[in-house]
Design goal:
alpha/beta; globular; Rossmann fold
């Protein structure tokens, strides 16, 4: 294991590499294993990805566009999430491959049928590639049986599906795909180590990760960046963390990585987490 430190790192990736609350000296330090996602694919199911962004260093490519509107990311959210998961400056898994699965149209509205179709394509691609694969879904919608069933099917077939808990400060089980039994559902915390005021909660939330004021890659130029908030940003940290752990841990698989993430997580540190929500903050195990 070769550990390195990124200085000037975004607070979110810095936070998941430290158990205690960061100090002024450690606040912008991301400590990680240099393999960081090597050999792992992250499928980003959202508005597309600006694959030419220099932050991806040639590791991002277009997969499929199920919306019929073209591969280009005109919304920006898919690029933002991909950057948090795996870009060179803003990302957790800096060597993972990104595959853009466009399921959100230019009006930023997500259709559950499009997401289900994109996830079916992703599941087959992951199976045929033979590579460890993580699916990151950026949308949280009203409860939808078709979408939940597709998530459950994907999980049974060995795909690790990471989803946002939702941003209404309600029970995550009342939404899709966060209510699906096969989803790994992520709530958001803020820089104060508190549950983000908007984050959904409840027993369906598997873990928390940074999701408030998260800087990342964006559309509009080869070095474009912006800041976003939401449980989708938190889920992007976990998609990256899953790829990270899969690349550095002997014997870890996409079916065992959920337990690895929750086992490594820091317990009972966050504030404003209502019972019976699990109080778990993601951790990459790179520091003591």
């Amino acid at each position: 294991m070769a550990i390195t430190t990124q200085t000037g790192a975004p607070w979110g990736i810095s936070r998941i590499s430290q158990r205690p609350k960061p100090t002024a000296q450690t606040f912008e330090r991301y400590v990680y294993d240099v393999r960081a996602g090597e050999g792992v694919d992250i499928y980003v199911l959202d508005s597309g990805v600006h694959t030419a962004h220099l932050g991806f260093a040639g590791r991002a490519r277009h997969g499929v566009d199920v919306t019929g509107t073209g591969h280009e990311d005109t919304v920006g959210r898919g690029t933002l999430l991909a950057g948090t998961a795996a870009s060179a400056k803003h990302g957790v898994a800096k060597n993972a491959s990104i595959i853009a699965v466009k399921v959100v149209k230019g009006n930023a509205l997500a259709d559950p049928g499009d997401i289900a179709e994109g996830l079916a394509w992703t599941t087959e691609q992951a199976r045929s590639s033979g590579r460890p694969s993580v699916a990151l879904i950026g949308a949280c919608l009203p409860r939808n049986r078709e979408l939940d069933e597709r998530v459950d099917t994907a999980a049974r077939q060995g795909l690790f599906v990471v989803v946002p808990a939702g941003d209404d400060s309600r029970d995550a089980r009342d939404y899709s795909p966060s209510g699906a039994s096969g989803a790994f559902t992520v709530g958001a915390c803020d820089i104060r180590d508190a549950r983000a005021y908007f984050s959904n909660h409840g027993p369906g939330v598997d873990v928390f990760a940074p999701g408030h004021n998260i800087p990342s890659t964006y559309i509009g130029g080869p070095n474009a960046a912006t800041t976003g908030s939401g449980t989708a940003q938190a889920a992007a940290h976990i998609a990256g963390l899953a790829a990270y752990l899969l690349s550095i841990t002997d014997g870890l698989t996409t079916t065992t990585v959920p337990d690895a993430i929750t086992t490594l997580a820091t317990r009972d540190l966050l504030t404003a987490v209502p019972a019976p929500t699990s109080n778990l903050l993601a951790f990459n195990n790179a520091t003591t």
